[in-house]
C-alpha cells in the first residue's frame, strides 16, 4: 500500500537540514506502519514516483530547484528540469500512478491582499484521492479558502474535530463536518467515486496539541512576515516560501518544529486511511 508524499515541502517549505530529516522521518513512519512511502519529484525532466534517500538529500540541498504546480509539470518535462512538486502536482501524479492517499502539511489557498489563489484548490476539485493536511497554511485567508473549497465541490472533513484546524493551531472558529475514523474516510472516497465525482476528499487533521502555537502568536509573526514581504517586494510563487521562512525567523524556529510534527502526524493518518482503502478495493475485486 503506497502513500504519496510531496517534495515542495522539502525544497521550499523547511530549511536545510530539517527538511531532509523530516522527509526521511515521514518515509519511516509510513514503513513502520506497513506502507510504502512514495516521495514524488521531477529529476532532470523525469517524473520520479518514489525518490531514493540520496535523491531527496540532493533536492533538499540544491538551491535552484523549481517549485512546480500541476500547470508547470509540462514545462519541467519538456525542458528536462529539476523540480519539486507541490500539492497540486503531487496529487495529480499520485492519482495517475494509482496511489489513493497523499499526506502533506498545509494546502495552498487564498492569500489575503491582491488576487493570489493557489492552484492546489483547483486540482483538489478534479483529482479523486484522499489528501491529509493540517489545514490551509497559517499565512492564508482561512474563511476565504474554506469558501472556495465549497464553490469548487471539494469534500472537506475534520479528523475527529468539528472545527477546521489552522495549521499551527487546532482551531479556526470555522465549523466543518467530522470524520470519525480512517475506515469512514476510505468509505467516503469509495462512495464519491461511485457517484462519478472527481473531487478529492480533503481531511484536515489538527496538529498534535503539544506542538500547537496559539493564534495570537501566529498572528504576531504573520504580521511581521507580511511586513517583510511588502518590504522585499516578493510576489507570485515566491510568496509562500518567503513567508514560511520569515515565520521560522520570527518564531525562532518554533514554526519549523510544529511543521515537522504536523507533517508526521498527517503521514500516520494517511497510512491508516490507505490500508482501509486497500481493504475496500481488494474486497471489491474479489467479489466481481
Ligand atoms: N505544506 C507545508 N509547507 C509547504 C507546502 C505545504 O507544510 O511549503 C507547499 C505545498 O507544496 C503547497 C505549496 O502545494 O506550498 C503551496 O504554494 P502556493 O501557495 O504558491 O500555491
Ligand atoms: Mn500563489
What does this structure look like?
The protein has 288 residues and is α/β, with parallel strands linked by helices. It has a single domain (2-287), classed as 3-Layer(aba) Sandwich (Indigoidine synthase fold). It is 48% helix and 14% strand. Strands 1, 2, 3, 4, 5, 6, 7, 8, 9 and 10 form a ten-stranded mixed sheet that branches. Helix 2 (18-32) runs parallel beside helix 11 (254-287) and helix 9 (215-232) crosses helix 10 (239-250). The mean pLDDT is 95. The structure holds pseudouridine-5'-monophosphate (PSU) and manganese (II) ion (MN). Manganese (II) ion (MN) binds at residues 116, 118, 237, 239.
Spatial extent as radius of gyration = 18 Å
Number of domains: 1
How much is the average pLDDT?
Answer: 95
Shape: globular
Short description:
With 288 residues, the chain is α/β, with parallel strands linked by helices. The chain contains eleven helices and ten strands. The chain is globular.
Q: Which features does this protein show?
A:
single chain, 288 residues, alpha/beta, Indigoidine synthase fold, 10-stranded mixed beta sheet, 10 strands, binds manganese (II) ion
